[in-house]
């Protein structure tokens, strides 16, 4: 069982503001969806220079935001530990997601490339680029991300950052978060 972990994630508070082309805006805020993931380590399990896992997930529609639905996917994260405390991450993900504008679903591919390094003890800087491909809309979107992650105590980390969409019309997100491993 040391190779398997159950993860429960939830957005304790979210605020979403949208503005249309006419300048009209809407604001929604509240509790977000709950995501359940099972992580199965295949290689490394936190040891060695290469780590790989499988993470199937299910997102449950508990959100106070408009039209939340069940979504699911499979994530395959990989990590290479490089010399000098550098880490190179790569992830492939296939998702079945709700369409933004319609009451329908679509399949999306996501790939990431992440580089991280400790700045000082317990503080890590993370830079990431990723793209998504929506098979239904035949649309490719690219993003760059930057974050800082601080280890408060063993197994408790705080993070903050930005997800920045590069194409016109792609979303930009700022985030603050906490994760605890028991």
From TrEMBL:
Record-linked InterPro entries: FApF
Source organism superkingdom: Bacteria
Protein name listed in UniProt: Putative MetA-pathway of phenol degradation
Species: Epilithonimonas hominis
Source lineage: Bacteria, Pseudomonadati, Bacteroidota, Flavobacteriia, Flavobacteriales
